[in-house]
Amino acid sequence: MKFDRIMIRYGEMALKGKNKKLFEQKLKYNLSGKLKEFPETTIEKTQGRMYVHLNGEHPQKVMEACQKVFGIHSLSFAVKVEQSEEAMKEAVLLAFHDARGAQTFKISSKRTDKSFPLPSQEINPMLGGHILRNTDGVTVDVHRPDVEIKVEVRHEGVLITARDYPGAGGLPAGTTGKSLLMLSGGIDSPVAGYLTMKRGVELEAVHFHSPPYTSERAKQKVIDLAQELAKYGSKVKIHVIPFTAVQQKIHREMPSGYSMTITRRMMMRISEKIAEQQGILSITTGESLGQVASQTMESMNTINEVTNYPVIRPLAAMDKLEIIDISRKIGTYDISIRPFEDCCTVFVPKAPKTKPTRANANYYESNTDFSEDLEKAVRESYTIEVDAQGSTDQQEDAFDDLL
Ligand code: ATP
Ligand code: MG
């Protein structure tokens, strides 16, 4: 016997009153997108639940795919069997073994079909006894069992549900709009992107690239990171910004103590232009308070001056270790630690000002006109579309347009 379906529970969505319908539709849509690689699966929506019918697809692989979909609180394997004691016994044993290492269990049964001859008080010991006879050292614990196996006797069959697997939580992708993620090749910004997606936000990304100071491999890193993020939602479009000219000009003409701050301000200005162009209403960054010179309160204040778009900083109040934990869990850490330089490490000054002020930044910037450089960077940006399977680089198309 094998599991024939996965039961999907979505806690938070149930609380969302009027939005519930939209959220359920989005969740179902996102799930079906995710399950494209398992073409036999089908999705059934019932009262406050969804079932993914496996129809022969690999249970564990489908489970792993479902666990990446936001909006799902928890999941369990389940199997529907006929109303026979033999079949039910076999199914509860299957369900018990799904909770590898469980030492205690509890059977909770419910009989909605009253024509079934045994009442639930008798179903529990009948099925529990079968598990006890077929395992070693396992006991029943009705208060705090390692695993609770649910048995529902319905008219059309008996549904047996195994242990809970954690879902990704959050809200279904696409239910709360779009944000423009400033995606570097570091550890932090992909985690920031993930956490924003978790709240139902779709992402586009902007990446500042400074060839020849930064290599193609540094850009590839960002594409690979976006691909990991795409596994949690749908496509991620990366806007690659040629940033060399702006960085060189800053390096030449701005005092070195302020070059970091001013670089960030230029990035923010360009990001806002891209967001505006794309109809995106917010910007997300991986800034975390106190991590580096550019992330003091003074820096954030000075950088933030140049945009009045909402800047979402999911990591602002998180510890580095917590951030690293998440990056490991979501699969971005190993990509982030590849050694290629990003555009900021190359130009990083020896002694960046840790307490910049708006007044000074404005004063230095007022001596040099950057507006044409910023326009040019936006004009010459190109996009790369990345989905969970890979990317399509549109750089060549962009060049065709210029010819
Ligand atoms: P990360 O680990 O995300 O690179 P960080 O700790 O290195 O962050 P900073 O270098 O100060 O921090 O960058 C702060 C934020 O600015 C990043 O999290 C990212 O959102 C944005 N950023 C930095 N460099 C780039 C870049 N080359 N392209 C796009 N965004 C960038
Ligand atoms: Mg970085």
TrEMBL record:
EC class (word): transferase
InterPro entries: Rossmann-like_a/b/a_fold, ThiI_AANH, ThiI_fer, ThiI_N, THUMP_dom, THUMP_ThiI, tRNA_STrfase, tRNA_sulfurtransferase_ThiI
Family: Belongs to the ThiI family.
Gene, per the UniProt record: thiI
Protein name: Probable tRNA sulfurtransferase
Membrane-spanning parts: none
Chemical reaction(s) catalysed: [ThiI sulfur-carrier protein]-S-sulfanyl-L-cysteine + a uridine in tRNA + 2 reduced [2Fe-2S]-[ferredoxin] + ATP + H(+) = [ThiI sulfur-carrier protein]-L-cysteine + a 4-thiouridine in tRNA + 2 oxidized [2Fe-2S]-[ferredoxin] + AMP + diphosphate; [ThiS sulfur-carrier protein]-C-terminal Gly-Gly-AMP + S-sulfanyl-L-cysteinyl-[cysteine desulfurase] + AH2 = [ThiS sulfur-carrier protein]-C-terminal-Gly-aminoethanethioate + L-cysteinyl-[cysteine desulfurase] + A + AMP + 2 H(+)
PROSITE patterns reported for this sequence: THUMP
Keywords recorded for this protein, A-Z: ATP-binding, Cytoplasm, Nucleotide-binding, RNA-binding, Thiamine biosynthesis, Transferase, tRNA-binding
Subcellular localization, as worded in the UniProt entry: Cytoplasm
Chain's role: Catalyzes the ATP-dependent transfer of a sulfur to tRNA to produce 4-thiouridine in position 8 of tRNAs, which functions as a near-UV photosensor. Also catalyzes the transfer of sulfur to the sulfur carrier protein ThiS, forming ThiS-thiocarboxylate. This is a step in the synthesis of thiazole, in the thiamine biosynthesis pathway. The sulfur is donated as persulfide by IscS.
